[in-house]
């Protein structure tokens, strides 16, 4: 059995050790609201509520916990604490939230969640179907709230394709020119006007076209190397043009084929990234009548990749018990650097 322990690690200079710890911190997706399982999967074809691929909320809860680096030793915990904090702390430090950004919805994340201002990006799961089908009553504006959340982290954000329009059905060819009479949004489209104003404030944003579930437990996810150095990037919004998207797609398909029990098989048919990108741009043009908006971010289309089934690692306690991870009296358990192959 191979020995993956680097014993000279404690003898490295402190600055170098801390830099290595920082490299192990995940770049994660900070979700504002929980995805509703059957709403997400229904957009890819109707399925009975008791036959869904997996629980997305359990993955979101796991994704909101502090990074694993916080549990290794005092030194790594200090690095984790200096890089991130609980959402309530960052919110308090940022000042008063504007009224329009004080968005409230039934699926809003209300428990404490961990955020890393340098590495995390903000994400909104909300779509038009949530309010139309479930009758959720909301205050504030979701995209204004997303812009505020993005400012708390690295400035990047992502939304679901269904947020712009669940009713638009795009068909090939996606690059066919759009003919219309209106050259700008009419004054009557106040909701779209507010959406457009908010999106223009984001320096970079992605539109999630597809949610893919990868059936892996925590240990297996870490060994793949596709979920961060320590395997704790449970939710990833991946640019569809990157090789990582193909790698995760192949992994998801392989894991599902080997699974002992699958309640509902996923459709792994892939849309080419260029077609996906063209489709998103056409939807944005049709909804917002803005030619510059699709050009704003260098990345346009994305995939929501979730490593699920880490339930043994999830605490159902909503009281913020994870804060005990930062007990300074905890034992320093690391005398060497362990790596995962």
Describe this structure in words.
This protein is α/β, with parallel strands linked by helices and about 350 residues long. It has one domain (about 25-65, about 85-335). It has helices at about 15-25, 35-40, 55-65, 75-85, 85-95, 130-135, 140-150, 160-165, 190-200, 220-225, 245-260, 275-290, 295, and strands spanning about 5, 30, 85, 115, 120-125, 155-160, 205-215, 235-240, 300-310, 335-340. The strands form three sheets. Strands 2-5-6-7-9-8 form a six-stranded mixed beta sheet, with helices on both faces. A two-stranded antiparallel sheet has the order 1-10. It has a two-stranded antiparallel ribbon with strand order 3-4. The protein starts with a strand and ends with a strand. The relative contact order is 0.18. The model is unreliable at about 310-340 (pLDDT under 50).
């Amino acid at each position: 059995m191979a020995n993956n322990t680097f014993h000279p690690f404690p003898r490295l200079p402190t600055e170098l050790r801390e830099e290595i710890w920082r490299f192990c911190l995940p770049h994660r997706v900070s979700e504002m609201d929980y995805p509703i399982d059957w709403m997400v999967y229904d957009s890819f074809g109707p399925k009975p509520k008791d036959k869904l691929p997996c629980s997305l909320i359990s993955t979101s809860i796991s994704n909101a916990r502090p990074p694993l680096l916080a549990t290794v030793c005092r030194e790594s915990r200090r690095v984790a604490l200096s890089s991130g904090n609980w959402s309530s702390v960052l919110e308090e430090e940022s000042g008063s939230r504007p009224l329009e950004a004080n968005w409230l919805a039934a699926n809003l994340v209300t428990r404490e969640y961990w955020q890393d201002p340098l590495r995390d990006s903000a994400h909104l799961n909300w779509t038009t179907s949530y309010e139309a089908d479930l009758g959720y009553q909301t205050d504030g504006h979701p995209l204004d709230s997303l812009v505020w959340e993005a400012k708390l982290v690295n400035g990047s954000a992502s939304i679901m394709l269904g947020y712009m329009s669940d009713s638009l059905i795009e068909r090939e060819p996606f690059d066919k020119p759009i003919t219309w009479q209106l050259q700008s949004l009419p004054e009557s489209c106040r909701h779209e006007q507010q959406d457009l104003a908010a999106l223009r404030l984001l320096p970079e944003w992605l539109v999630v076209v597809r949610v893919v579930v990868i059936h892996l437990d925590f240990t297996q996810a870490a060994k793949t190397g596709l979920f961060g150095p320590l395997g704790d990037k449970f939710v990833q919004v991946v640019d569809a043009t990157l090789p990582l998207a193909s790698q995760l797609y192949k992994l998801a398909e392989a894991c599902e084929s080997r699974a002992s029990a699958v309640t509902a098989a996923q459709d792994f048919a892939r849309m080419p990234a260029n077609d996906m990108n063209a489709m998103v741009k056409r939807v944005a043009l049709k909804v917002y009548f803005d030619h510059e908006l699709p050009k704003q971010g260098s990345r346009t289309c994305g995939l929501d990749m979730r490593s699920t089934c880490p339930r043994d690692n999830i605490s159902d306690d909503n009281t913020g018990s994870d804060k005990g991870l930062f007990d300074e009296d905890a034992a320093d358990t690391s005398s060497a650097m362990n790596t995962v192959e």
